[in-house]
TrEMBL record:
<dbReference type="Pfam" id="PF12850">
    <property type="entry name" value="Metallophos_2"/>
</dbReference>
<dbReference type="InterPro" id="IPR000979">
    <property type="entry name" value="Phosphodiesterase_MJ0936/Vps29"/>
</dbReference>
<comment type="similarity">
    <text>Belongs to the metallophosphoesterase superfamily. YfcE family.</text>
</comment>
<dbReference type="InterPro" id="IPR024654">
    <property type="entry name" value="Calcineurin-like_PHP_lpxH"/>
</dbReference>
<dbReference type="InterPro" id="IPR029052">
    <property type="entry name" value="Metallo-depent_PP-like"/>
</dbReference>
<keyword id="KW-0479">Metal-binding</keyword>
<dbReference type="GO" id="GO:0046872">
    <property type="term" value="F:metal ion binding"/>
</dbReference>
<feature type="domain" description="Calcineurin-like phosphoesterase">
    <location>
        <begin position="1"/>
        <end position="152"/>
    </location>
</feature>
<protein>
    <recommendedName>
        <fullName>Phosphoesterase</fullName>
        <ecNumber>3.1.4.-</ecNumber>
    </recommendedName>
</protein>
<dbReference type="GO" id="GO:0016787">
    <property type="term" value="F:hydrolase activity"/>
</dbReference>
């Protein structure tokens, strides 16, 4: 099972559309995960149309129309992998311990908010993934997203992808 992880798209505030490379990944993915800060409901509508399966949450920049359709925390079991998605996990300091306490029955937690790619494993074995942003790099050198696979009940081949800089 192929997963695409994105977050913090901020459309149309930070970009007019998702990059074509990300839409190609949407088409290839069995599951698309969006960790919040969509900003405009039209992206949710389009991802719902174009994704085989979409798991998403709202972020702090998402208004009532998105909050009415998306949860604060989403959970799913994907071929034996217990996935949770949330927009914000708080400060970098102490993140692993906080997430272990808040998500004890989770194998993988996808989050966003910082626009900073993240891939760590907590002391309890929880995998923390932040795909960064495909549209708003902030102080990062590149806009980013992540892909991975779920196979035989485990997460495999987590890869951070850098998008070409826009001119």
């Amino acid at each position: 099972m192929r997963l695409l992880l994105i977050s913090d798209t901020h459309l149309p505030a930070r970009a007019r559309a998702l990059p074509a490379q990300v839409w190609d990944e949407v088409a290839a993915a069995d599951v698309v995960v969006h960790a919040g800060d969509w900003v405009d409901v039209s992206l949710l509508d389009e991802l719902e149309r174009r994704s085989k399966r979409l798991i998403g949450v709202y972020g702090n920049n998402d208004g009532p129309d998105l909050r009415a359709r998306l949860p604060e925390i989403a959970r799913a079991e994907l071929d034996g992998v217990r996935l949770a998605v949330i927009h914000e996990t708080g400060a970098k300091q102490g993140r692993e311990q906080r997430c272990d306490a808040l998500f004890p029955d989770t194998d993988v937690l996808v989050f966003g908010h910082s626009h900073i790619p993240w891939d760590t494993t907590t002391p309890a074995g929880l995998r923390l993934l932040n795909p960064g942003s495909p549209t708003d790099r902030r102080r990062q050198p590149f806009c980013t997203y992540q892909t991975c696979r779920v196979e035989d009940g485990s997460l495999r081949d987590v890869e951070l992808h850098q998008l070409p800089r826009r001119g």
